[in-house]
Amino acid sequence: MTRKSILVTGGAGYIGSHVVKLLGERGENIIVLDDLSTGFEEAILYGEFIKGNTGDQALVNNILKQNNVESVLHFAAHTIVPESVENPLKYYQNNTCCTRNLLECCSTAGVKNIIFSSTAAVYGELETGYASEDTAKSPINPYGSSKLMSEQMIRDLSYATDLNHVILRYFNVAGSDPDGRIGQSTKNATLLIKVAAEVAVGKREKLLIFGTDYPTPDGTGIRDYIHVSDLAAAHIKALDYLQNGGESTTLNCGYGHGFSVRDVINAINNENGSPINVEEMPRRAGDPPELISVADKIRSTIDWQPQYDDINLIVRTSLAWEKKLLAS
Ligand code: UD1
Protein backbone atom coordinates (compact mmCIF):
# COMPACT_ATOMS: atom_id res chain seq x y z
CA MET A 1 0.00 0.00 0.00
CA THR A 2 1.32 3.48 -0.85
CA ARG A 3 1.82 6.01 1.94
CA LYS A 4 -1.35 7.82 3.04
CA SER A 5 -1.90 11.10 1.30
CA ILE A 6 -3.96 14.27 1.39
CA LEU A 7 -5.95 15.59 -1.56
CA VAL A 8 -6.20 19.38 -1.71
CA THR A 9 -8.78 20.66 -4.19
CA GLY A 10 -8.23 24.29 -5.17
CA GLY A 11 -4.66 24.16 -3.88
CA ALA A 12 -3.50 26.69 -6.47
CA GLY A 13 -5.81 29.35 -5.04
CA TYR A 14 -5.21 32.03 -2.43
CA ILE A 15 -6.10 30.11 0.73
CA GLY A 16 -5.43 26.59 -0.62
CA SER A 17 -1.86 27.47 -1.61
CA HIS A 18 -1.10 28.75 1.90
CA VAL A 19 -2.38 25.47 3.36
CA VAL A 20 -0.36 23.40 0.85
CA LYS A 21 2.74 25.29 1.99
CA LEU A 22 2.15 24.33 5.64
CA LEU A 23 1.36 20.72 4.73
CA GLY A 24 4.50 20.53 2.60
CA GLU A 25 6.67 21.99 5.35
CA ARG A 26 5.65 19.16 7.62
CA GLY A 27 6.38 16.51 5.02
CA GLU A 28 2.86 15.38 4.10
CA ASN A 29 2.15 13.50 0.90
CA ILE A 30 0.05 15.99 -1.06
CA ILE A 31 -1.92 15.86 -4.29
CA VAL A 32 -3.27 19.19 -5.53
CA LEU A 33 -6.27 19.12 -7.86
CA ASP A 34 -7.04 22.49 -9.46
CA ASP A 35 -8.50 23.49 -12.82
CA LEU A 36 -6.54 26.79 -12.73
CA SER A 37 -9.70 28.74 -13.55
CA THR A 38 -8.68 31.28 -10.92
CA GLY A 39 -5.60 29.71 -9.30
CA PHE A 40 -1.92 29.82 -10.27
CA GLU A 41 0.30 26.80 -10.75
CA GLU A 42 3.35 28.66 -9.46
CA ALA A 43 1.56 29.12 -6.11
CA ILE A 44 1.74 25.35 -5.48
CA LEU A 45 4.96 24.99 -3.53
CA TYR A 46 4.65 21.30 -2.62
CA GLY A 47 3.10 18.05 -3.76
CA GLU A 48 1.96 16.57 -7.06
CA PHE A 49 -0.19 18.86 -9.20
CA ILE A 50 -3.05 17.46 -11.29
CA LYS A 51 -4.95 19.87 -13.52
CA GLY A 52 -8.64 19.05 -13.46
CA ASN A 53 -12.06 19.72 -12.03
CA THR A 54 -13.37 18.53 -8.68
CA GLY A 55 -16.61 17.44 -10.34
CA ASP A 56 -14.83 15.04 -12.73
CA GLN A 57 -15.65 11.78 -10.98
CA ALA A 58 -13.55 9.51 -13.21
CA LEU A 59 -10.49 11.64 -12.49
CA VAL A 60 -11.19 12.01 -8.76
CA ASN A 61 -11.95 8.28 -8.31
CA ASN A 62 -8.65 7.50 -9.94
CA ILE A 63 -6.72 9.99 -7.79
CA LEU A 64 -8.25 8.65 -4.57
CA LYS A 65 -7.55 5.04 -5.51
CA GLN A 66 -4.00 5.51 -6.78
CA ASN A 67 -2.82 7.59 -3.83
CA ASN A 68 -4.39 6.03 -0.74
CA VAL A 69 -6.04 9.33 0.15
CA GLU A 70 -7.15 9.45 3.78
CA SER A 71 -8.07 13.14 4.03
CA VAL A 72 -9.49 15.70 1.62
CA LEU A 73 -9.19 19.47 2.03
CA HIS A 74 -11.79 20.98 -0.27
CA PHE A 75 -11.11 24.61 -1.30
CA ALA A 76 -12.06 24.55 -5.00
CA ALA A 77 -14.91 27.02 -5.49
CA HIS A 78 -15.97 30.29 -7.05
CA THR A 79 -15.98 33.02 -4.42
CA ILE A 80 -17.14 36.34 -5.88
CA VAL A 81 -20.43 37.38 -4.31
CA PRO A 82 -21.68 39.87 -6.96
CA GLU A 83 -20.86 37.36 -9.72
CA SER A 84 -22.91 34.72 -7.88
CA VAL A 85 -25.90 37.07 -7.90
CA GLU A 86 -25.60 37.59 -11.67
CA ASN A 87 -24.86 33.97 -12.53
CA PRO A 88 -26.25 31.75 -9.76
CA LEU A 89 -26.12 28.48 -11.70
CA LYS A 90 -22.37 28.87 -12.22
CA TYR A 91 -22.07 28.90 -8.42
CA TYR A 92 -24.48 26.05 -7.77
CA GLN A 93 -22.67 24.01 -10.45
CA ASN A 94 -19.11 24.59 -9.33
CA ASN A 95 -19.63 24.94 -5.59
CA THR A 96 -22.58 22.67 -4.88
CA CYS A 97 -22.81 20.06 -7.68
CA CYS A 98 -19.04 19.52 -7.83
CA THR A 99 -18.95 19.12 -4.06
CA ARG A 100 -21.69 16.52 -4.31
CA ASN A 101 -19.64 14.62 -6.91
CA LEU A 102 -16.51 14.84 -4.83
CA LEU A 103 -18.38 13.53 -1.78
CA GLU A 104 -19.63 10.54 -3.72
CA CYS A 105 -16.05 9.72 -4.75
CA CYS A 106 -14.89 10.16 -1.13
CA SER A 107 -17.60 7.81 0.04
CA THR A 108 -16.76 5.16 -2.55
CA ALA A 109 -13.04 5.32 -1.77
CA GLY A 110 -13.54 5.29 2.02
CA VAL A 111 -11.92 8.68 2.64
CA LYS A 112 -11.92 9.25 6.40
CA ASN A 113 -11.68 13.01 6.82
CA ILE A 114 -12.84 16.09 4.96
CA ILE A 115 -12.12 19.71 5.79
CA PHE A 116 -14.42 22.08 3.98
CA SER A 117 -14.02 25.79 3.18
CA SER A 118 -17.23 27.53 4.10
CA THR A 119 -17.92 31.18 4.69
CA ALA A 120 -19.44 33.76 7.00
CA ALA A 121 -21.72 34.49 4.04
CA VAL A 122 -23.91 31.57 5.26
CA TYR A 123 -25.19 33.81 8.10
CA GLY A 124 -26.62 36.58 5.91
CA GLU A 125 -27.70 39.73 7.72
CA LEU A 126 -27.16 39.74 11.46
CA GLU A 127 -29.14 41.58 14.10
CA THR A 128 -26.20 42.06 16.46
CA GLY A 129 -23.20 42.11 14.09
CA TYR A 130 -21.82 38.99 15.79
CA ALA A 131 -22.23 35.42 14.53
CA SER A 132 -21.63 32.26 16.52
CA GLU A 133 -21.78 28.86 14.87
CA ASP A 134 -25.36 28.49 16.15
CA THR A 135 -26.61 31.79 14.76
CA ALA A 136 -29.41 31.29 12.23
CA LYS A 137 -28.18 30.66 8.70
CA SER A 138 -29.90 32.81 6.14
CA PRO A 139 -27.60 33.59 3.21
CA ILE A 140 -28.51 36.62 1.10
CA ASN A 141 -26.65 35.60 -2.07
CA PRO A 142 -26.11 32.42 -4.15
CA TYR A 143 -22.47 32.19 -3.06
CA GLY A 144 -23.52 31.81 0.57
CA SER A 145 -26.35 29.44 -0.36
CA SER A 146 -24.07 27.27 -2.50
CA LYS A 147 -21.73 26.86 0.48
CA LEU A 148 -24.53 26.23 2.98
CA MET A 149 -25.94 23.49 0.73
CA SER A 150 -22.51 21.88 0.58
CA GLU A 151 -22.23 22.05 4.37
CA GLN A 152 -25.53 20.22 4.67
CA MET A 153 -24.47 17.46 2.26
CA ILE A 154 -21.26 16.93 4.22
CA ARG A 155 -23.15 16.69 7.53
CA ASP A 156 -25.68 14.26 6.06
CA LEU A 157 -22.96 12.06 4.57
CA SER A 158 -21.00 12.06 7.84
CA TYR A 159 -24.15 10.96 9.63
CA ALA A 160 -24.74 8.12 7.18
CA THR A 161 -21.12 6.89 6.82
CA ASP A 162 -17.74 6.86 8.59
CA LEU A 163 -16.69 10.17 7.03
CA ASN A 164 -15.62 12.81 9.57
CA HIS A 165 -15.60 16.53 8.85
CA VAL A 166 -14.54 19.93 10.01
CA ILE A 167 -16.39 22.77 8.31
CA LEU A 168 -14.54 26.07 8.60
CA ARG A 169 -16.52 29.27 8.11
CA TYR A 170 -14.09 31.96 7.02
CA PHE A 171 -14.62 35.61 7.93
CA ASN A 172 -12.64 38.27 5.99
CA VAL A 173 -9.41 36.62 4.90
CA ALA A 174 -6.51 38.96 4.13
CA GLY A 175 -2.72 39.25 4.07
CA SER A 176 -0.07 37.06 2.54
CA ASP A 177 2.54 34.53 3.58
CA PRO A 178 5.16 36.46 5.64
CA ASP A 179 7.95 34.62 3.75
CA GLY A 180 6.75 36.43 0.62
CA ARG A 181 6.65 33.33 -1.57
CA ILE A 182 2.89 33.27 -2.12
CA GLY A 183 0.04 35.73 -1.73
CA GLN A 184 -3.28 36.91 -3.09
CA SER A 185 -2.96 37.17 -6.87
CA THR A 186 -6.71 37.25 -7.61
CA LYS A 187 -7.48 39.26 -10.74
CA ASN A 188 -10.07 42.08 -10.57
CA ALA A 189 -10.09 41.88 -6.79
CA THR A 190 -12.95 43.46 -4.86
CA LEU A 191 -11.88 42.72 -1.28
CA LEU A 192 -10.99 45.79 0.76
CA ILE A 193 -7.41 45.09 1.87
CA LYS A 194 -6.32 43.77 -1.53
CA VAL A 195 -7.83 46.81 -3.29
CA ALA A 196 -6.29 49.23 -0.76
CA ALA A 197 -2.87 47.62 -1.27
CA GLU A 198 -3.26 47.93 -5.04
CA VAL A 199 -3.99 51.65 -4.63
CA ALA A 200 -0.95 52.04 -2.36
CA VAL A 201 1.41 50.58 -4.99
CA GLY A 202 -0.15 52.63 -7.80
CA LYS A 203 -1.96 49.81 -9.56
CA ARG A 204 -5.30 51.57 -9.00
CA GLU A 205 -6.09 55.22 -8.83
CA LYS A 206 -8.22 55.27 -5.68
CA LEU A 207 -10.10 53.28 -3.07
CA LEU A 208 -13.86 53.77 -2.95
CA ILE A 209 -15.26 53.78 0.61
CA PHE A 210 -18.64 52.12 0.35
CA GLY A 211 -20.77 53.86 2.96
CA THR A 212 -19.88 56.43 5.61
CA ASP A 213 -23.26 56.54 7.35
CA TYR A 214 -23.35 53.12 9.01
CA PRO A 215 -24.28 52.97 12.71
CA THR A 216 -20.64 52.32 13.65
CA PRO A 217 -18.23 54.61 15.55
CA ASP A 218 -16.71 56.12 12.37
CA GLY A 219 -19.63 55.44 10.00
CA THR A 220 -17.86 52.77 7.91
CA GLY A 221 -18.39 49.01 7.81
CA ILE A 222 -16.69 46.77 10.37
CA ARG A 223 -15.29 43.29 9.59
CA ASP A 224 -13.30 40.56 11.32
CA TYR A 225 -10.11 40.37 9.21
CA ILE A 226 -8.13 37.15 9.64
CA HIS A 227 -4.60 36.67 8.32
CA VAL A 228 -4.40 33.92 5.70
CA SER A 229 -1.50 32.21 7.51
CA ASP A 230 -3.56 31.91 10.70
CA LEU A 231 -6.43 30.54 8.64
CA ALA A 232 -4.07 28.06 6.97
CA ALA A 233 -2.84 26.96 10.41
CA ALA A 234 -6.46 26.35 11.46
CA HIS A 235 -6.73 23.77 8.65
CA ILE A 236 -3.66 21.92 9.92
CA LYS A 237 -5.09 21.91 13.46
CA ALA A 238 -8.43 20.69 12.11
CA LEU A 239 -6.67 17.86 10.28
CA ASP A 240 -4.77 16.84 13.42
CA TYR A 241 -8.01 16.99 15.36
CA LEU A 242 -9.78 14.59 12.99
CA GLN A 243 -6.76 12.30 12.72
CA ASN A 244 -6.75 12.07 16.54
CA GLY A 245 -10.39 10.96 16.53
CA GLY A 246 -12.12 14.33 17.05
CA GLU A 247 -15.85 14.53 16.38
CA SER A 248 -17.19 16.21 13.28
CA THR A 249 -17.76 19.92 13.88
CA THR A 250 -18.29 23.37 12.36
CA LEU A 251 -16.09 26.30 13.39
CA ASN A 252 -15.99 30.03 12.75
CA CYS A 253 -12.62 31.30 11.60
CA GLY A 254 -12.08 34.86 12.76
CA TYR A 255 -10.37 36.69 15.60
CA GLY A 256 -13.58 37.78 17.32
CA HIS A 257 -13.07 41.53 16.89
CA GLY A 258 -13.40 43.91 14.02
CA PHE A 259 -11.90 46.90 12.21
CA SER A 260 -13.67 49.57 10.21
CA VAL A 261 -12.86 50.55 6.63
CA ARG A 262 -11.20 53.71 7.99
CA ASP A 263 -9.11 51.63 10.44
CA VAL A 264 -7.87 49.59 7.48
CA ILE A 265 -7.08 52.72 5.47
CA ASN A 266 -5.14 54.19 8.43
CA ALA A 267 -3.14 50.98 8.76
CA ILE A 268 -2.35 51.00 5.03
CA ASN A 269 -1.34 54.67 5.17
CA ASN A 270 0.97 54.04 8.13
CA GLU A 271 2.65 51.11 6.39
CA ASN A 272 2.83 52.91 3.08
CA GLY A 273 4.26 56.11 4.54
CA SER A 274 1.82 58.31 2.60
CA PRO A 275 -1.98 58.48 2.39
CA ILE A 276 -3.77 56.57 -0.34
CA ASN A 277 -6.33 58.26 -2.54
CA VAL A 278 -9.90 57.58 -1.33
CA GLU A 279 -13.38 58.64 -2.37
CA GLU A 280 -16.49 58.38 -0.22
CA MET A 281 -19.38 56.62 -1.93
CA PRO A 282 -22.88 55.48 -0.99
CA ARG A 283 -23.28 52.05 0.64
CA ARG A 284 -22.68 48.97 -1.54
CA ALA A 285 -25.80 46.84 -1.90
CA GLY A 286 -25.91 43.84 0.42
CA ASP A 287 -23.16 44.99 2.80
CA PRO A 288 -24.08 44.57 6.49
CA PRO A 289 -22.74 47.27 8.86
CA GLU A 290 -20.85 44.81 11.03
CA LEU A 291 -19.81 41.15 10.69
CA ILE A 292 -17.71 39.70 13.49
CA SER A 293 -17.21 36.11 14.55
CA VAL A 294 -17.85 34.71 17.96
CA ALA A 295 -14.55 32.86 17.86
CA ASP A 296 -14.36 30.84 21.08
CA LYS A 297 -15.28 27.44 19.70
CA ILE A 298 -12.32 27.14 17.30
CA ARG A 299 -9.86 27.90 20.11
CA SER A 300 -11.35 25.38 22.51
CA THR A 301 -12.00 22.62 19.96
CA ILE A 302 -8.84 22.44 17.82
CA ASP A 303 -6.29 24.28 19.96
CA TRP A 304 -5.84 27.07 17.43
CA GLN A 305 -3.64 29.95 18.55
CA PRO A 306 -3.45 32.82 16.10
CA GLN A 307 -0.06 34.40 15.42
CA TYR A 308 -1.00 37.38 13.23
CA ASP A 309 -3.93 39.02 15.01
CA ASP A 310 -2.67 42.52 14.21
CA ILE A 311 -4.21 44.70 11.49
CA ASN A 312 -0.85 46.43 10.85
CA LEU A 313 0.84 43.09 10.25
CA ILE A 314 -2.00 41.98 7.97
CA VAL A 315 -1.75 45.08 5.77
CA ARG A 316 2.09 44.95 5.85
CA THR A 317 2.09 41.47 4.32
CA SER A 318 -0.57 42.49 1.77
CA LEU A 319 1.46 45.51 0.76
CA ALA A 320 4.69 43.49 0.52
CA TRP A 321 2.98 40.99 -1.78
CA GLU A 322 1.48 43.73 -3.95
CA LYS A 323 4.94 45.27 -4.36
CA LYS A 324 6.31 41.89 -5.36
CA LEU A 325 3.55 41.40 -7.95
CA LEU A 326 4.28 44.83 -9.39
CA ALA A 327 7.98 44.06 -9.72
CA SER A 328 7.47 40.68 -11.41
C1 UD1 B 1 -16.71 39.36 1.33
C2 UD1 B 1 -17.88 38.65 0.76
C3 UD1 B 1 -18.45 37.73 1.79
C4 UD1 B 1 -17.40 36.78 2.30
C5 UD1 B 1 -16.27 37.61 2.84
C6 UD1 B 1 -15.18 36.75 3.34
C7 UD1 B 1 -18.84 40.22 -0.87
C8 UD1 B 1 -19.95 41.20 -1.13
N1 UD1 B 1 -18.85 39.65 0.36
O1 UD1 B 1 -17.15 40.09 2.43
O2 UD1 B 1 -19.54 37.03 1.28
O3 UD1 B 1 -17.94 35.99 3.32
O4 UD1 B 1 -15.77 38.45 1.81
O5 UD1 B 1 -14.40 36.30 2.30
O6 UD1 B 1 -17.99 39.98 -1.71
N2 UD1 B 1 -15.20 48.07 1.07
C9 UD1 B 1 -14.99 49.36 0.64
N3 UD1 B 1 -14.36 49.55 -0.56
C10 UD1 B 1 -13.95 48.51 -1.35
C11 UD1 B 1 -14.16 47.19 -0.90
C12 UD1 B 1 -14.80 47.01 0.32
O7 UD1 B 1 -15.35 50.33 1.31
O8 UD1 B 1 -13.38 48.76 -2.44
C13 UD1 B 1 -15.84 47.85 2.39
C14 UD1 B 1 -17.14 47.08 2.35
O9 UD1 B 1 -18.24 47.93 2.20
C15 UD1 B 1 -17.10 46.36 3.70
C16 UD1 B 1 -15.62 46.11 3.95
O10 UD1 B 1 -14.93 47.06 3.14
O11 UD1 B 1 -17.57 47.20 4.72
C17 UD1 B 1 -15.16 44.72 3.57
O12 UD1 B 1 -15.58 44.42 2.23
P1 UD1 B 1 -14.96 43.22 1.37
O13 UD1 B 1 -13.49 43.17 1.56
O14 UD1 B 1 -15.48 43.35 -0.02
O15 UD1 B 1 -15.54 41.94 2.06
P2 UD1 B 1 -17.05 41.62 2.52
O16 UD1 B 1 -18.01 42.25 1.61
O17 UD1 B 1 -17.16 41.90 3.99
Structure characteristics:
alpha/beta; Rossmann fold; 328 residues; binds uridine-diphosphate-N-acetylglucosamine
pLDDT averaged residue by residue: 96
- Strands of the biggest beta sheet: in what spatial order? 3-2-1-4-5-7-12
Task: Report the span from N to C terminus.
Answer: 43 Å
Number of domains as seen in the coordinates: 2
Oligomer kind: single chain
Which ranges are low-confidence, i.e. pLDDT below 50, for 5 or more consecutive residues?
A: none
Fill in the CATH topology of the largest domain: Rossmann fold
Strand content: 15-25%
Number of helices: 10
Counted beta strands: 15
Bound molecules: uridine-diphosphate-N-acetylglucosamine
Q: What Rg is obtained from the alpha carbons, in whole angstroms?
A: 19 Å
Proportion of helical residues: 25-40%
Write the element-wise H/E pattern from the N-terminal end onward.
Answer: EHEEHEHHEEHEEHEEEHEEHEEHH
Structural summary, described in words:
The chain has 328 residues and is α/β, with parallel strands linked by helices. The chain folds into two domains: 5-174 and 225-253, Rossmann fold, CATH 3.40.50; 192-224 and 257-327, UDP-galactose 4-epimerase, domain 1, CATH 3.90.25. 40% of the residues lie in helices and 19% in strands. It has helices at residues 14-25, 57-67, 81-86, 88-109, 142-160, 192-200, 228-243, 261-272, 296-302, 311-327, and strands at residues 5-9, 30-34, 48-51, 69-74, 113-119, 130-131, 164-170, 172-174, 207-210, 222-223, 225-227, 249-253, 259-260, 278-281, 290-293. The strands form four sheets. A seven-stranded parallel beta sheet has the order 3-2-1-4-5-7-12, with helices on both faces. A four-stranded mixed beta sheet has the order 6-15-10-13. Helix 1 links the parallel strand 1 (5-9) and strand 2 (30-34). The N and C termini lie far apart (43 Å). Bound molecules: uridine-diphosphate-N-acetylglucosamine (UD1).
